[in-house]
Amino acid sequence: MKSRMNRVKFREWWRPVAPIVAHEYLSEFCLKNGTWTNDARESAGSHATPSPYMSMAPRVSTEAARLAPAIVHFDGTARLQTLAAEDDPWMHSLLLAVGNNKG
Fold first, then answer.
1. Which residues pair with 38 in a beta bridge?
2. pLDDT tens digits, 24-83
3. Hey, is 103 helix, strand or coil?
């Protein structure tokens, strides 16, 4: 998937695909319950922090990296967008439906 998308978009081979994650799944997607990385150092805190504008890059869990390797940077992070129901109800419902179907 990553190779094809990068070829179509004329991007470098190493660029990962940016995921969109329903806010409810953020703590499952990221390490340490959604703890964000900051300048390659893990920040303090134990609660998942939303990133609706793709301004943060959390370290992803081993399971998320296994299920979707195209989204992971070389350092184990992913620059993701989080989506809450109030941001876009239709897209949020779709993400939840896919999550419920795929696990």
1. 41
2. 888 777 765 444 443 333 443 445 678 899 988 888 888 888 888 989 998 888 888 999
3. coil
Contact predicate 82/19, CB 8 Å: no
- Among 84, 65, 66, residue whose Cα is nearest residue 20: 84
Q: Is 58 helix (H, G, I), strand (E, B) or coil?
A: strand
Residue 3 to residue 39: CA distance in whole angstroms: 27
- What are the structure tokens assigned to 84, written together? 């809450």
Q: Return the structure tokens found at 57.
A: 């890059």
Q: Could you tell me the pTM of the whole model?
A: 0.70
Percentages of the chain per state (helix, strand, coil), in multiples of 5: 40, 15, 45
Eight-state DSSP code of residue 56: -
